Amino acid sequence: MRLSYGVIVLLTVLISCKEDESETTQINGLWLDDFNISEGNSNSTKNLLVRVEGSVAETTTIAYMVKEGKAKFGTDLLPGSGSVTLEPGQSNFQIPVQLIGDEHLEITEAFTVELTVNGNTFTIQPAIVDDDNVEAILSDEDGFYTSAEHPSMQLVWRDEFNGNSLNAEYWSYELGNGCSIGICGWGNNELQTYTNNEANVKVENGNLIITAINNLGSYTSARIKTQNKIKPQFGRIDVRARLPKGQGIWPAIWMLGENITSINWPGCGEIDIMELVGHEPAKSHGTVHFDQGGYKSSTGSTTLSSGDFSEAYHVFSLVWDKNSITWYVDNQAFKSFSHQESEFNLPFFFLMNVAVGGNWPGSPNASTVFPQSMVVDYIRVFQ
Asked: What CATH architecture applies to the domain 7-129?
């Protein structure tokens, strides 16, 4: 179930109606429509919408002052102050915030806005993010974002796969059969050709759907990536997905070092958030590949106690910092990797695909049912 997210700032503001009366008008709280505001790539002024629960009974002046937090003046935003006037019956107002943009994906950084009403001062703490559509999260039905392990992380980027097409600001396609200097199969002897056809990749009903198809022994599928667009460095990554199955089916949600164009694999590093080989549909794998005086890897896996990953959605997670990487399925850790390799301290980009055949899963056989789809509900990055 999708939840509607918002933040209620728990304030009680008492405003005198008339100087000669002791009665007061109670405003139950201030509700921030867009608790997080988007930084963007260039300097801009964004309006923070503050909504009063209820409405004021008489003309009321609210003074505001923008102050630093983790977001700093001169780097992230500019100082600002002023006042707004609410007329009787008015239930919201806007505070302009001057942001300093840049082209890099940054962590969410909070700042402070002080509101003064009739001599009483109250504080709200919005934050600057890199996505126009990000809203603050109260909670999630699965409780992932209020876990004791990572209570301080904030949402910095997400794709909920709403709308009717893949967001081109985030994703691009990799196409073809992976042939390079006479070697095909994407380096793994895979059998599929990747396309951007709607039959193989589409956004529908709030999901990304990547589908592998068998066309009389000629296989097609899709592979998408965020290279040069979204390239996080550290944080928690959550991907909610339902996976395909069957002999020869190989879905993956993974990451490559953004410097792969200058430092070849495995020197760029690879982090596999989730891989599954279709003949073991209840087992999810997490792996890293890297160069340590030659190719090295470290892998782990977890198996569902009942059923398999094609039957329901599960959340595949990664917690990544400068010292270690830990893999989770449904918030249960199953592998940790302590690293000293410099490639894992640099930005990475995301990939998602469904391969057919290859060295690991082997080829499809008569038992394999086509089409097979990986359905992704969302991908979220917290820092």
From this structure: Sandwich (2.60)
